[in-house]
UniProtKB/TrEMBL annotation:
Keywords from the UniProt entry: Hydrolase
Name of the protein: Alpha/beta hydrolase fold-1
Classification via Pfam families: Abhydrolase_6
Domain AB hydrolase-1: 39-321
GO molecular function: hydrolase activity
InterPro entries in alphabetical order: AB_hydrolase_1, AB_hydrolase_fold
C-alpha cells in the first residue's frame, strides 16, 4: 500500500481550544481506480487509526481481483482527537478538558473532513468499530443526503434512550467495570520492546493478532519521561480520557443519538452490522437495540463471527476483512443498477 499522512482541522474543544485530527490515506500500489469506492474507517476506544492496516491490505487484495466498480479507490483512517497521533497534536489543548473530546466532537470532525474537498465526488463507504461506529453515524447529521453510499458497523457501542433507561443498572455496571479496569492497568514501560513483551504475555492483548499488537506498540505509545526524569514510553491516549469516555459520552448522549440515526438512515442507505458471536463487553440489549426493526432499524444485513466477542478487530482482522469484502460487494451490486439507469 501507498500511505500518506495528513493533519486535518477539527472543530474546537468544548472550551474553545483549537484541535487537529491526524489521518492517513491508503492507496493500492499501482493505478488508482477512480470509479472504485473510498473507505472512511474509524477506530475504537483506546485504539488508533493504524489498527485497520492488516484489514486494508487484505481488502485491497480481495477487491483488486474484481471489476473496477467494486475495487477500492482509496481508504482514509482518522484518529479520534484524543487518540493516537491526534492525542499528541492536541495534548496541550485537551489536558484540562474534563470532557476531553466527546463523540459528538469526533462526529463533527469526520463531517468536516467529508466536506474538505479531499473526497469530493468519491463513492464513500463508512466503516466504524465500537465507538468509531458512533462517530461515523454522528458525522451524517448535518447532511441533507447521507454522504455514504453504504455503512458498516462493527460491534457498535450504542443504545437508544429507552434501552439505557430500561437497563440502566446493567449497562452502567458493565461500562463501569471497563472504566475501573482502564484506570488500574499499567501505563508506563521502559521501552517499546518491554511494552511489546508485556502485551504479548497478558490478556486481552495476548489474544490479539500479533500484527495488531505490533501496530499498537508502534502507534498507540509514545516516548516520554517518568516522574524521576528517566526515559520511558506511555500511551498516547491519556488514561483519564480513555477511562472517562464511557461515562462522559453516556452523559452527553452520543451513543444514544447514534442509535437513533440508524432509524433515520436505514431506509436511505444500506447499513450492515457485524457482531462477534460471543457476548462479552456489550450486553445483549445493546445489540438488540441496534437492529430493532420495531424502531425502523431495518439494517441490510447482520453477520455473526464465531469464537470472538467485542475484540473482533484485533483478534480476527482477516476474518473481518473477508466479511467486509462481501459487504462491499453487496453495496456495489445494489448501487450498480441505479447508476446504469442514469
Amino acid at each position: 500500500m501507498n500511505i500518506e499522512s495528513f493533519i486535518l482541522p477539527s472543530p474546537p474543544s468544548p472550551s474553545g481550544q483549537p484541535l487537529r485530527v491526524a489521518a492517513k490515506r491508503y492507496r493500492y500500489t499501482g493505478k488508482i481506480t477512480r470509479d472504485g469506492i473510498t473507505l472512511v474507517m474509524l477506530h475504537g476506544l483506546g485504539m488508533h487509526k493504524e489498527q485497520w492496516e492488516p484489514i486494508l491490505e487484505k481488502l485491497f487484495t480481495l477487491q483488486s481481483e474484481k471489476s473496477t466498480f467494486y475495487r477500492i479507490r482509496e481508504a482514509w483512517s482518522l484518529d479520534w482527537q484524543n487518540h493516537g497521533e491526534s492525542a499528541v497534536l492536541n495534548e496541550e489543548a485537551l489536558k484540562d478538558e474534563p470532557k476531553s473530546a466527546p463523540l459528538d466532537l469526533w462526529g463533527r470532525a469526520i463531517a468536516q473532513f467529508l466536506t474538505s474537498g479531499l473526497v469530493t465526488g468519491h463513492r464513500l463507504v463508512g466503516i466504524g468499530y465500537s465507538f468509531g461506529a458512533v462517530g461515523l453515524l454522528l458525522s451524517t447529521r448535518d447532511f441533507q443526503k447521507c454522504p455514504y453510499e453504504g455503512i458498516v458497523l462493527v460491534e457498535p457501542c450504542m443504545a437508544d434512550e429507552d434501552t439505557w433507561a430500561a437497563n440502566h443498572d446493567e449497562l452502567h455496571a458493565a461500562f463501569g467495570m471497563v472504566n475501573n479496569a482502564v484506570k488500574h492497568r499499567r501505563n508506563v514501560w521502559v521501552s517499546k520492546r518491554e511494552a511489546h513483551q508485556y502485551f504479548m504475555g497478558r490478556f486481552p492483548w495476548n489474544a490479539w493478532d500479533s500484527r495488531i499488537v505490533a501496530l499498537f506498540v508502534e502507534h498507540a505509545l509514545k516516548d516520554s519521561t517518568d516522574k524521576n526524569g528517566k526515559a520511558c514510553v506511555i500511551r498516547k491516549c491519556p488514561v483519564i480520557h480513555e477511562a472517562s469516555a464511557f461515562q462522559a459520552n453516556l452523559e452527553l448522549g452520543g451513543p444514544q443519538e447514534a442509535a437513533e440515526r440508524i432509524s433515520i438512515l436505514a431506509d436511505r442507505v444500506p447499513i450492515h452490522v457485524i457482531f462477534g458471536e460471543t457476548v462479552d463487553l456489550l450486553p445483549e440489549v445493546c445489540r438488540d437495540c441496534v437492529v430493532d426493526r420495531t424502531k425502523r432499524r431495518n439494517v441490510a444485513s447482520i453477520t455473526m463471527i464465531p469464537d470472538v466477542g467485542h475484540s473482533i478487530i484485533p483478534e480476527q482482522p482477516y476474518v473481518v476483512a473477508t466479511t467486509i469484502s462481501q459487504i462491499l460487494d453487496r453495496i456495489c451490486s445494489a448501487e450498480a443498477p441505479a447508476r446504469s439507469a442514469l
